[in-house]
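Internal tracking record. Fields below are filled automatically when a chain is submitted to the structure queue. Please do not edit lines marked as system-generated. If the sequence contains nonstandard residues, flag them in the REMARKS field before resubmitting.
Queue: standard
Priority: normal
Entity type: single polypeptide chain
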Amino acid sequence: MTREDAINIISKEGLKSYNLNEERYNREDELVIKQENDTWVVYATDERASVITGSKKVFINEEEAWENLIKRLRADKILREI
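SYSTEM-GENERATED OUTPUT FOLLOWS
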């Protein structure tokens, strides 16, 4: 999956609370994808905008990182609707 594919899915499915490699501080309860050197990192933040222990996953392949982010955003949407 590419960045463009992910952005289209986010828009089409109304997914919320994410940071797509933006240069800013983390916000509360969001999913983050960041490029760090030659890797991509996906993680979740808590109500204090801190990285949730155990949520950080590192990818060498950018496409796999975007797929993981979308998977997590979809799960987050389901949980928010309960």
